[in-house]
Amino acid sequence: MRRHGLPAVRIVHTNFSHLYWTFAQMLAHHTSNGCNMQPGDLIASGTVSGPEPQGRACLAEINRRGTNPLDLPGGEQRMWLEDGDELTLRGRAVKEGHVPIGFGECAGRVVCSSG
User: What is the residue extent of each domain of the chain?
Assistant: First the structure.
């Protein structure tokens, strides 16, 4: 797409409201099993997929475990990330009566080395 001057395309749009467990529940699960959480430790949600097709939040879900390729503009298809693919993640939290917050953009390009 980049080589042909095509703009980036959104392939996923999901919502954190689809998270199966809250962070409080995840923390309780960790600590109840003996995890010694300390200030500064990081905990992550993992993939947060929604019930709609556009809410499938990983390529394995989007392409149905490698059986249905993702069609991209310009005729390209993807089963998995390839050398040169570039991804941008964005997140934003909005609640009425509160200031919206976000983490900006997190972008990267896949670079395969032949060594």
Answer: 16-109
The secondary element (H helix, E strand) that includes residue 26 is helix 23-32
| Cβ atoms 105, 90 nearer than 8 A | yes
What span, in angstroms and rounded, lies between the C-alpha atoms of 93 and 91?
A: 7
What element of type H or E holds 109? strand 101-109
Is the pTM above the cut of 0.85? Answer: no
Cα separation values, 79 from 68, 93, 115, Å: 8, 30, 24
**61: part of which helix (H) or strand (E)?**
helix 59-62
Instruction: Give the integer Cα–Cα distance in Å for 62 and 20.
Output: 19
Please check whether residue 107 is in contact with residue 88, taking contact to mean a CB–CB distance below 8 angstroms: yes
115 has a pLDDT exceeding 60: no
CB 50, CB 15: distance < 8 Å: yes
pLDDT tens, residue by residue, 48-64: 899 998 899 899 999 99
